[in-house]
Q: What sequence folds into this?
């Protein structure tokens, strides 16, 4: 479904990002996975090369808080693979302190990665995509972007902002043939969920109408569809992939 396409996936070293990288490779895209450190990116690339020996894959690790570093890394990908067609803004962190205990520095940290880095990466990618005649930007939102959560207000605030970027940029960039969509995962079995108290995970899982937590591949499948030409008339959408969860 992605033959001839080039993708960058941030937070591509594990969890949802890694599953998305694998899905894109299986569908014949060339993929650059971005990690928070070059060492972890290289390690993930080495493991993927064993599984996908014919795949075109590279690892990058720009500081996502540094516009010049992001621009340079995206140019490096364009030079290595010839173009850039898909960006998946997936790197993200979570935090669940109550308001009274919330360290303002933690609030800023979440906004810096979950929102500011999405803006920064999108801007760098869109400049390349506009020049080459189009592309696809995909954002990892969250089910909590629809109704908040009872603690850790920074995380849902960041994902509401991701939805705002998605819908606004879809309207702004349509004329440049750049589609912008988001996937809003429910509770997905990754390190982020492993860090939650087991009691909370069980409580959430027991309320899921489809009777199970999501797997990273469930989200990767949604990204694959939205990245592909099958979604050529879809832009500005926030697609829930959550088994109809309401937390
Ligand atoms: P994860 O913790 O397994 O992966 C997070 C990724 O982000 C890692 O690759 C990590 O290296 C990267 N990252 C973290 N800090 C970074 C930084 N400062 N700079 C660059 N990269 C950094 O988490 P995950 O569950 O796979 O989450 C991926 C995305 O999915 C996040 O945006 C998250 O908010 C979202 N999400 C996850 C769930 C879930 O239940 N797991 C639900 C809804 C949304």
A:
């Amino acid at each position: 479904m992605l033959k001839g396409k080039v993708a960058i996936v941030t937070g591509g070293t594990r969890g949802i990002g890694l599953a998305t990288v694998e899905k894109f490779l299986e569908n014949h895209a060339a993929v650059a996975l971005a990690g928070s450190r070059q060492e972890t990116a290289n390690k993930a690339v080495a493991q993927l090369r064993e599984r996908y020996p014919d795949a075109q894959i590279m690892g990058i690790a720009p500081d996502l808080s540094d516009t010049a570093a992001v621009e340079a890394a995206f140019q490096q990908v364009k030079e290595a693979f010839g173009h850039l067609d898909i960006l998946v803004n997936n790197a993200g962190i979570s935090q669940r302190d109550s308001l009274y205990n919330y360290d303002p520095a933690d609030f800023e940290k979440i906004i810096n990665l979950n929102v500011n880095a999405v803006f920064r990466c999108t801007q760098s990618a869109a400049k390349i995509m506009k020049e080459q005649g189009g592309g696809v930007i995909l954002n990892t939102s969250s089910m909590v972007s629809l109704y908040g959560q009872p603690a850790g207000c920074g995380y849902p605030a960041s994902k509401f902002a991701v939805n705002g970027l998605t819908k606004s940029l879809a309207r702004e960039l349509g004329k440049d043939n750049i589609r912008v969509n988001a996937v809003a995962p429910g509770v997905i079995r990754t390190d982020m969920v492993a860090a939650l108290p087991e009691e909370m995970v069980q409580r959430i899982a027991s309320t899921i109408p489809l009777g199970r937590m999501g797997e990273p591949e469930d989200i990767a499948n949604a990204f694959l569809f939205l990245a592909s030409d099958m979604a050529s008339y879809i832009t500005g959408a926030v697609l829930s992939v959550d088994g109809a969860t309401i937390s």
Q: What stands out?
A: The radius of gyration is 17 Å. The first strand starts at residue 6 and ends at 10.
